[in-house]
Amino acid sequence: MTEEAATETARIVASLKRIMKSRGVTYAQLARDIRLSEPSIKRILSRATLTLQRLEQICGALEVSMHEVTRLAAEQSADTAELLTLEQETALAGDANLFACFYLLANGRTGREIGNELRADEKQVRRWLVRLHSLRLVELRSGLRARTRTASAIAWRKDGPVRRLYEKQVREEFLHSSFSGLFEAQHFRSAELSDASCRVFLRKLEKLAAEFRDLAELDRSLPSRDKRSVAVLLAARPWVFSMFESLRRPRAAAIPAGDARYGVHRL
Could you tell me the CA-to-CA distances from 119 to 92, 98, 125 in Å, in that order? Predict the structure, then answer.
């Protein structure tokens, strides 16, 4: 096997592992599905010794096509970016229709589907695609087709133009509901953590965000009728609830020394 082929195989194996992780499939489960022992499947994936037949079996067990796996591998090799340049973000923030076109395209919509959703004719859709191409956000294809150069789930700049424009509105709309419907969840926890535990927890949040991105990439090629728009807000910060803060007693320095009313005595 040539070095180039070995590298490509390694990317495919890495994509398979990402799919397994995002779908919660263990080595033991995968081994049972393709009738191998767990050590055998671990050895195949660790050494990247995949035959075409074995790859087909694994894809069948994971319910993905070989095309989807190779596409993920290709996007990984192309270093698909989550973070846009300031120029790209500024252009999207300045044109709501262009932003909507880019979002739909990044999530697998075709040019015609975009036209239907945004109620635009082919000429307008083509103008949006050409503009996105000039911003190096997409690669134009024949017809009303284009391939995005970015991941489906983009991490917008913390103080960038997109977040400045939409963050308040998004938070208000996103947190307005009771989170009690299908595919909805809300968890709130507050506790005191050490600096070391905070760093560990933040790394876990980053991994969870990466898994969300992987799922979005995996489902990008699915038809729109088989998908729904899903948003995830992951947040952590040093914080004390104002109600709790107001109940804290004044510092001892503010209490008159030796005043028996406060149970404080000078030693």
Answer: 19, 13, 10
